[in-house]
Amino acid sequence: MRPRSWVTPVTGGRGLPHEDDVLWPQLIAADPVAGAALSELSTEHDALEAALEALAVAPVQDDADRAALAATAASVRDLVHQHLEHEEPVLFPALAAHMSDEAWTEFSRAVIASAPPVGAHLNLCRKPFFPSCRPCVSRPKPP
């Protein structure tokens, strides 16, 4: 069975590598106390990656598969909501306190540049935390 083409490119085949591998070390260097909370978020990223992989390969051959697909999609939705409830109170204050507009722009450009074209429109600017932030690149419209 072929994975759905819109799931794998959106995840990049590896959950959220830029947060775990690039952003977290920068924030931990600025605030070592944040390390434990960021490590917990990385564990949640692993769970999200597994849920997205399950969604990518969930069967969709006929109507009999509909309930299982819906349950798999609901699992992803619920994990994302739960994760954001945990991540936002940790990450947003850390970004505001320890990351300059310039550093955020550089990070954002790296993420956008490495995003597959099919998922590039899902990249979001954190402008509320960086008032002088201008769009890093023109974002393509969703297909």
Please provide a brief summary of the model.
The protein is mainly alpha-helical and 143 residues long.
Describe how the helices and strands are arranged.
Layout: H1 8-11, H2 17-30, H3 35-57, H4 66-98, H5 101-114
Helix pairs in contact: 2-3, 3-4
Written description of the protein model:
It is a single chain. This protein has a domain at 8-101. Helix 2 runs antiparallel to helix 3 (35-57) and helix 3 packs antiparallel against helix 4 (66-98). The protein is mainly α. Residues 1-6, 8-16 and 126-143 have low confidence and may be disordered. The chain contains 5 helices and no strands. The longest helix is centred in the middle third of the chain and has 33 residues, at 66-98. The chain has helices at 8-11, 17-30, 35-57, 66-98, 101-114.
